[in-house]
Amino acid sequence: GVLGSGDFARSLAVRLVCSGFRVVVGSRNPKRKASLFPAAAEVTFQAEAVKKADVIFVAIFREHYSTLCDLADVLVGKILVDVSNNTEINHHKESNAEYLASLFPACTVVKGFNVVSAWTLQSGARDGNKQVLICSNNQEAKRIVAEIAQVMGFTPVDMGCMSSACEIENIPLRLLPAWKIPIFLALGLFLCFFTYNLIRQVIHPYIREQKNKLYKIPIEVVNTTLPCVSYVMLSLVYLPGVLAACSQLYYGTKYRRFPDWLDQWLQHRKQIGLLSFFCAALHAVYSLCLPMRRSHRYLLIETAVKQAVEKKMTIWVEEEVWRMEIYISVGIIALGLLSLLAITSLPSIANSLNWREFSFIQ
User: Fold this and answer.
1) For 120-171, how does the pLDDT look when each residue is reduced to its tens digit (9 = 90+)?
2) How far apart are CA 264 and CA 284, in angstroms?
3) Could you give the CA distance from residue 194 to residue 216 in angstroms, rounded to a whole number?
4) What is the C-alpha R_g of the chain?
5) Nearest-CA neighbor of 274 among 183, 188, 350, 174?
6) Number of structural domains the chain divides into
7) Domain containing 165: what range?
8) Do 193 and 51 fall into the same domain?
9) What family name appears in the similarity comment (predicted)?
């Protein structure tokens, strides 16, 4: 059964019907809401829906849990699956699932399906996250909900007892938790290298020769900064592995725990590597845009005028030509290799490789 008639409740009902379950939807206005649900789902009043189902998905907001108190008698012995989320991290002292369990002590409450979006429910487990995090104090109830998740095409993950509900409810509210440190690291490196290049390419010529080079800031200075950040970030991907190996050799065992700073560093290597690839890709795009600038055209015309005034037939310098050709060729190859590393670090690709293949590419 499903209590609620919002977007998530509708998507959940669709997924359950497509998975072969008999679905009863409880609504306060069944006649008006019936057209929103699939024809195979029975839409009726909440009291009637509760009587016809043993497992009930509570798809309503926490503030409306108290409206279900009138159904306390018919809810006795039922399994309530709380799918709600909060609007803020740790917004309440107790989780929504624990609050629901306190309101209906005669029921068995299971926290689950809150990390799955309505879109994923509608399109199936082939799109989006396939994991369904489940927790409850009742093992049998967890087993039943896990079986339902498996039939729906998802992968149930047992998160333990009900005390884990608060952590599960906070997961959808976190913004890229694994990327916070790598992003700040990349921004810090970018600011350092940008400041150095700004002084070297813009401020220094102005002080020494009174030349206005401010036009270089948007493209040239940024383009000179990006590869520096990319190189350093890439080195930071492999450096912790070397430090970890040295630590194991020093202590003569691989079972000794690494220091916390090294452990955190090792865990963020993939994110650091992808940011390195991002900076390298931006550098390639910026480099392609260099000839498109108006300043480049003016300098090209100025060079041509000087050549005509000085009556020079050619300014071809073989060494500089070869140097630039080799530089661009090596840069393209390096970007290609870095792209290969970035692609193989994606979970969908990495999971299809065995350890020897992955190590060979690295």
Assistant:
1) 888 765 555 688 999 999 999 999 999 999 999 899 999 999 999 999 999 9
2) 30
3) 12
4) 30
5) 183
6) 2
7) 2-173
8) no
9) Belongs to the STEAP family.
Instruction: Report the amino acid identity of residue 111.
Output: K
Domain boundary residue, one of 229, 264, 288: 288
Question: Do the beta carbons of residue 159 and residue 135 sit within 8 Å?
Answer: yes
Burial of 190 (0-12, 13-18, 19+ CB in 10 A): middle
Residue 10 and residue 132 in one domain: yes
The pair of three-digit structure tokens given for residue 98, joined into one six-digit string: 């624990």
Q: Roughly what angle, to the nearest 10 degrees, separates helices 222-251 and 180-198?
A: 130
From CA 94, how far away is CA 86, in angstroms rounded? 11
Question: Which residue type sits at 318?
Answer: E
> Which residues is 157 bridged to in the sheet?
133
Pair 96, 169: CB distance under 8 Å? yes
Average pLDDT of the chain, as a whole number:
91
> Is residue 83 domain-shared with residue 97, that is, in the same domain?
yes
Length, in residues, of the chain: 362
Residue 128: the pLDDT is 53
What the block records as the tokens of 56 is 């009930």
pTM, two decimal places: 0.75
Q: What are phi and psi of 166, to 5 degrees?
A: -60, -40
CB of 152 closer than 8 Å to CB of 19: yes
Going by DSSP bridges, is the β-strand pair 79-82/55-58 parallel, antiparallel, or unpaired? parallel
Please report, for the domain that includes residue 78, its CATH number.
Answer: 3.40.50.720
What distance lies between CA 39 and its chain's CA centroid? 36
* Averaged pLDDT for residues 212-229: 95
Max distance between CA atoms of the chain, in angstroms, equals 101
Residue 158 structure tokens: 């047992």
Spatial distance between the Cα atoms of 193 and 189, rounded to a whole number of angstroms:
6
Phi, psi at 41, each rounded to 5°: -90, 135
* Residue 348, CB-side half-sphere exposure with 13 Å CA sphere: 6
Angle at 343 between CA 340 and CA 349, to 5 degrees: 120
Alpha carbon distance 283, 191 (integer Å): 16
Domain boundary among 173, 197, 214: 173
Same domain (yes/no): 6, 152: yes
